[in-house]
Specification:
Elements: E1 4-7, E2 10-14, H1 20-34, H2 40-43, H3 47-62, E3 67-73, E4 76-87, E5 92-99, H4 108-122, E6 128-134, H5 138-146, E7 150-161, E8 164-174
Parallel strand pairs: 5-6
Antiparallel strand pairs: 1-2, 2-3, 3-4, 4-5, 6-8, 7-8
Helix pairs in contact: 1-3
């Protein structure tokens, strides 16, 4: 197993089925906050569903169609990043993230996503990395902007989440645009 440092006290590591109890405890701590715009807390409601979720991503990793990584701070799982989809044939993948509210503002997700995106372009030869987020999820959209992504458009009311239709913004960055140029 590998682990990559994000900060002195923070690491990025592959989430595996054996982390199910830890993952569920993490979801329980951040369930309401994380679930405001995404269904992840809904699909990891108990230990069995959490194992099923992690098993699904193990299958995706084995078939090269997705990846799932956790973020630990001081040894505690507090968030994660993923390739929800990873289509080598088309050269397109979708990255995403989640984080407990107590860890927001430290740049952990942005740093972790930079590592994933860099790997996708440099190691895997991907052409396009997408980011999908609810239009009301300003923190997620801010990550996309910090990653140098361009807002491609909005899918209006495409996502029914907790009985409310959400708009989804689609952002992307292309291989030739990576890494983004930092402002002077």
């Amino acid at each position: 197993m590998f682990s990559t440092d994000l900060a002195d006290d923070a690491q990025l590591f592959p989430l595996e089925v054996r982390h199910a109890k830890e993952f569920l405890a993490h979801m329980d701590r951040g369930r309401e906050y994380i679930g405001r715009y995404v269904a992840l807390p809904d699909v990891t409601a108990d230990l069995d569903s959490t194992r099923a979720y992690l098993t699904n991503y193990a299958r995706k990793a084995a078939t090269d169609t997705g990846r799932l990584y956790g973020i630990r701070v001081d040894g505690t799982l507090v968030g994660g990043v993923l390739f929800r989809t990873f289509d080598v044939a088309s050269g397109t993948c979708e990255a995403g993230c989640w984080l407990e509210p107590t860890m927001a503002g430290r740049g952990l997700v942005t740093t972790a996503c930079r590592i994933l995106i860099d790997w996708a372009f440099r190691e895997r030869g991907m052409h396009r990395v997408e980011w999908h987020a609810a239009s009301e999820n300003k923190k997620s959209l801010a990550v996309a902007a910090r990653l140098g992504m361009t807002r491609d458009g909005v899918m209006r009311q495409n996502d029914l989440h907790h009985g409310v239709r959400q708009d989804t913004e689609v952002w992307s960055v292309l291989a030739h645009e990576w890494p983004p140029v930092s402002p002077a």
